[in-house]
Amino acid sequence: xxxxxxxxxxxxxxxxxxxxxxxxxxxxxxxxxxxxxxxxxxxxxxxxxxxxxxxxxxxxxxxxxxxxxxxxxxxxxxxxxxxxxxxxxxxxxxxxxxxxxxxxxxxxxxxxxxxxxxxxxxxxxxxxxxxxxxxxxxxxxxxxxxxxxxxxxxxxxxxxxxxxxxxxxxxxxxxxxxxxxxxxxxxxxxxxxxxxxxxxxxxxxxxxxxxxxxxxxxxxxxxxxxxxxxxxxxxxxxxxxxxxxxxxxxxxxxxxxxxxxxxxxxxxxxxxxxxxxxxxxxxxxxxxxxxxxxxxxxxxxxxxxxxxxxxxxxxxxxxxxxxxxxxxxxxxxxxxxxxxxxxxxxxxxxxxxxxxxxxxxxxxxxxxxxxxxxxxxxxxxxxxxxxxxxxxxxxxxxxxxxxxxxxxxxxxxxxxxxxxxxxxxxxxxxxxxxxxxxxxxxxxxxxxxxxxxxxxxxxxxxxxxxxxxxxxxxxxxxxxxxxxxxxxxxxxxxxxxxxxxxxxxxxxxxxxxxxxxxxxxxxxxxxxxxxxxxxxxxxxxxxxxxxxxxxxxxxxxxxxxxxxxxxxxxxxxxxxxxxxxxxxxxxxxxxxxxxxxxxxxxxxxxxxxxxxxxxxxxxxxxxxxxxxxxxxxxxxxxxxxxxxxxxxxxxxxxxxxxxxxxxxxxxxxxxxxxxxxxxxxxxxxxxxxxxxxxxxxxxxxxxxxxxxxxxxxxxxxxxx
Length: 720
Hints:
eight-stranded antiparallel beta sheet, 4 domains, mainly beta
């Protein structure tokens, strides 16, 4: 490291080596504030303490997050469709809390590198007389005591370079090269135009921080506000978004400012309803304050969980819960619009009950979109008669919700109530993103999200381990693994913990065992029906060990549970791809094919992890229509191979057979749009229909699922 010395100087008439002839202003430095410390080699002040750049503001007064996706700001497009929206490189103050003219202050000691003598596009405008959407900003350079440079970008600043800079009267802006103190006045929040006609005021302060040092020839790199989402990553421990070049200002304030912020501390508790994901991609749902349930990929896909926003957690966090049985699927459902109304109804094929969605946001929270809703009057009439009305459908547990024009965000719990999250920093430490929050009118909030609990989720809550592991000797492992279980003491010794919680093994004096169990002797035993193992008599307590068997693969045709996992042959998942366990692509021999047509559906497409699901409806002759739902006969036996081959039995003379395939990635076979999961002019994969008896092909046409949109489904007008 280069040698450094501190130049202690009161910031009165300070000048920068690069602008020695430029007039400097006198900062408004309080008498209790220490002298500014400057690196004598770079001329950059050391920043020892950071604060929020708006007076009286804290983390809860900032809205748009670091790394948040702005779906109005496209960075990459193709044929008129946006391929990647911009991810935010700073923090935006809330528009409702930041009036035009709000004073802006220096977040730390620094030197001005860019001021309001020049304008920058997309940073707002000074007033309504400037419709060209160009505004000003101030860029400061600071230096940590370690010698690392960092920049503070303060965007959407009023352009007041032509006004005398006075920190007492709070007028004008500092010029380039000015040394400023933490808390010193810099400028005012400007107008910010929004909307296609730039008619809406959306004023706020953009606060970004970048790893320095500042290079004047690379000015454009230091004033950007967005980057590709792929340049961000999640920190597994803190759940915070991080960027290689840009810093989250809240993290800097946490490290060099308010100690109550507690950034970077280990999160140990997640509110009930949260969707979690471990390092290998296994999903979990927090059932209540102490229980966690695994979520299989197949249920996550069939029940449309928002897997993309699952919170990445550590094994230590998972160990703070008691594991329960896996989450069950809600089963096949039908969505339809009630005749002559705008009400969307969800009907369950397993319970024969129907529920009205309270709000459109509730429908979205369950993973559905407009394309999933049936609008056929015949479907509505038949469903209203078939299904029994039940309670209204609220937001899905785990949904984040707020009232319009309010800042408090709550999470919807599985018990049907909503719990407030104390602050923005707690919200983000839990791994949530602001784009997930549903904003709902206050008058329907309770109906949509449940009764509000009085207890908020605070920093103290999320650092508490609900079900700590009990270690050897009755000690608390704090949610981590028992050190003795990791040490694995050899046979004949025991594990104990010292005062520091470290594990050690000690040799025990062997006992003389009498009777059937003789110390150190092994014998054969039955590990599970038909499988032999061995057990050993302990020399410590003269007790038989559990019956041990070597790890072996399941034989799929011998009628024995070879791997002792409780399931035999084709019932074992390990045998799913075995030839003896694959279903034959032919109709059930017990079905009279003189009355039924055996329709063979074959699909070939891209390999994806998960199952392919076929949905369909049809009109049998002289019967009520079969409602739109999953076709259970078309199960995806070998998941992930991109192939499906099944037989559907349809009555001869069936009309209007319509079908769609749900793909494992959340897309659809018939999506021909150019969106991320669309086929962009073609279907996602190929479907062929034929007779399972004769092999003769059956033609079908593609019809719009929603009129005027590129979401198509297959249609056969008549089944012979």
